[in-house]
Write a structure and sequence with these properties.
153 residues, 2 helices, elongated, disordered N terminus
């Protein structure tokens, strides 16, 4: 795997925060540090339905899944949570699982074609708590990583 270089830090007061995120590859930024954070990838697969406008009217959270309607009618439905390493490919099993749950929650989606099915890798930490870690060799440089599904909140 190639090394990732960060070229544009953001400066906030006297602290420097890296504004280029390495995501699931964040550990490669800090692997030379003593006791580096244990960041690992978690695959999430999503579907995009080409639905009619207002077929789903509000963002819905159901257990670990969500439906996000768009103004044009498309509905984003996700997602899986899979501990498979750096494998970003989609699977038929996940497509069927997500489709079945989406249709269970919103029966009208059964008539809407799936326009797109994709996967992404999220940066996770073992305890589910993000890291904000100081660089041991550069004063006021910090790595923010392991935010999983939540981003920087």
């Amino acid at each position: 795997m190639a090394r990732i270089s960060i070229c544009r830090p953001a400066i906030a007061g006297r602290y420097v925060f890296l504004d280029r995120y390495a995501g699931a590859w964040s550990r490669t930024l800090v692997e030379d540090w003593p006791n580096p954070p244990e960041i690992h990838p978690v695959r999430g697969q999503m579907l995009l339905f080409h639905a009619e406008p207002n077929s789903v009217r509000r963002i819905t959270l159901h257990e670990n899944h969500y439906a996000i309607p768009r103004k044009d009618g498309r509905v984003l439905f996700g997602s899986t949570t899979e501990d498979v390493g750096y494998v970003k490919e989609t699977t038929r099993e996940a497509r069927h699982q997500l489709f079945a749950l989406a249709v269970q929650l919103y029966p009208s989606l059964s008539e809407s074609p799936v326009e797109h099915h994709w996967a992404g890798l999220r940066p996770a930490s073992p305890e589910g708590i993000p890291y904000i870690t100081a660089c041991p060799t550069i004063e006021n440089l910090y790595i923010n990583a392991g935010h999983f599904r939540n981003g920087v909140v």
